[in-house]
Write a structure and sequence with these properties.
The complex is a heterodimer of chains A (about 220) and B (about 220). Chain A is about 80% helix and about 0% strand. By secondary structure, chain A is an all-alpha fold. Helix content of chain B is about 75%, strand content about 0%. Chain B is built from 8 helices and no strands. Chain B is flat and about 70 Å long. Classes of the chains: A mainly alpha (about 220), B mainly alpha (about 220). Chain B: It is found in: Cell inner membrane; Cell membrane. Chain B: Belongs to the binding-protein-dependent transport system permease family. HisMQ subfamily. Chain B: Pfam families: BPD_transp_1.
Chain lengths: ~220, ~220
């Protein structure tokens, strides 16, 4: 047993690297997939719509912890080779991000009235031009606040990677707490760091919501 | 892949699923109580109380549920309050669900236009009658989808209780894994069980919603 020192404090902040890295990876791979999900869900082809909907339902109906374990133990089985844990975790967070962001973005796309598409085609725009210049532009405005809100969920969700041994913020907290026997100080600090990361995003999301009011 | 060794653990799986459901229902009921009380306080006139509720909401919505469970389980004993794993998880998840419920219920109440309430008062309805006949039905209908989807997220979130060894479904999975060494198979089965429970609740809530509100109703 030893006392809580500056080194423990620093190690918590150093562990933030992994929290940030996991968020960045989840967004880098998850966001493009989310766009595919969102556009697939409003596609003209019923088969594609149903497949996308089923994928999203499955991911949203399983705990994130379950997804992480499924791919952590499953990746070597699917691929037949041992992969680094980071790969498995990235796949799990990517799907998680894609499913939730996909639904948020679909909501934004569907909130744009059908007449807007028709107006675009009356102007002689191609389907892609209608999507790009009329629909996506308005959907972006509607989807931005909940997208920022989801970032908070994602940051909080990276705490689960601690269970698979990633020394991110939550895991660093466990390590420091076990070494110093100061759970109160340690977890209060960990919570404060998460809070300092998430609160600005929450407030930003709220101000965006007020500013980009969809009813205008 | 070999799922056969898992077959003899079906009783543990069922027990784990029951504990998961218990945890979910307890946290949901306690959280909804907190939600109603918090929404009333937020609409009330006592400024310090409003700040207190605001602070509670922001604190619990902007920190991970896992850390909240750790704090209740590992930190409260420092203050002489040692809770067993299940109780600790129930307390932490109730507070987490409560923080989201306050906002959902408040938004539901706010969604009713003020002039409708005034119209009711003009008709000579009592405060209770205004609440019961004018405020409550649309508020319930508007809050219902958010409450139910939050409930499903809570059901999935109870898996975090496994990290303080509450004997719910995910913890049972760890136990079976340690006995059979069939890691992938165990967690695949667990995912299917959670999926089935979540989908059943979604279907149930959709049916209740259709029956109660003929939802979605076009205005």
């Amino acid at each position: 047993m030893r006392s809580f020192t500056l080194i423990d404090f620093v190690s918590l902040f150093a562990a933030l690297r992994w929290t940030v890295a996991l968020v960045v990876l989840a967004l880098a791979f998850g966001a493009p997939l989310a766009l595919a999900f969102a556009t697939g869900r409003i596609s003209r082809f019923a088969g594609l719509r149903w497949t996308m909907a089923a994928c999203i339902q499955i991911v949203q109906s399983v705990p994130l912890l379950g997804l992480l374990f499924f791919f952590y133990f499953g990746m070597p089985m699917f691929l037949g080779i041992q992969v680094p844990a980071l790969v498995a975790v990235t796949v799990a967070y990517t799907l998680y991000t894609a499913a939730f962001l996909g639904e948020i973005w679909r909501g934004g796309l569907e909130a744009v009235k059908q007449a807007q598409w028709e107006a675009g085609s009356c102007l002689g725009l191609s389907a892609w031009q209608q999507f790009r210049h009329i629909i996506a532009a308005q959907a972006l405005r509607l989807s931005l606040p909940p997208t920022v809100g989801f970032l908070v969920q994602l940051i909080k969700g990276t705490s689960l990677a601690s269970i698979l041994g990633f020394v991110e913020l939550a895991r660093a907290g466990q390590v420091v707490s076990a070494a110093t026997f100061q759970p109160l100080l340690t977890y209060a600090l960990v919570a404060a760091i998460y809070f300092a990361l998430c609160l600005p995003l929450t407030l930003w999301s709220r101000s965006l919501e007020a500013r980009l009011d969809g009813s205008r | 892949m070999n799922f056969l060794p898992l077959w003899r653990y079906q009783n543990q799986l069922i027990d784990g699923a029951i504990v998961t459901l218990e945890l979910t229902v307890i946290a949901a009921l306690a959280g909804l109580l907190i939600g109603v009380a918090g929404a009333v306080a937020l609409n009330g006139r006592i400024t310090p109380l409003r700040w207190l509720v605001r602070g509670y909401i922001e604190l619990f919505r902007n920190t991970p549920s896992l850390i909240q469970i750790f704090i209740v389980f590992f930190v409260l004993p420092n203050f002489g309050l040692k809770l067993p794993a299940f109780e600790a998880a129930a307390v932490a998840l109730s507070l987490y669900f409560g923080a989201y419920s306050v906002e959902i219920i408040r938004a539901g109440l706010d969604s009713v236009p003020k002039n409708q309430i005034e119209a009711g008062q003009c008709l000579g309805l009592s405060g209770w009658q205004v609440f019961r006949h004018i405020l409550l039905p649309p508020a319930l209908r508007n809050a219902y989808p958010a409450v139910t989807s939050q409930f499903v997220l809570l059901l999935l979130g109870t898996s975090l209780a496994s990290q303080v060894a509450a004997d719910e479904l995910f913890h049972v999975a760890g136990f079976i894994e340690s006995r059979t060494y069939r890691s992938f198979e165990v967690y695949a089965v667990i995912c299917v069980v959670y999926f089935t429970m979540a989908m059943s609740f979604k279907a149930l809530f959709a049916i209740i919603g259709l029956a109660a509100f003929r939802w979605p109703r076009r205005r």
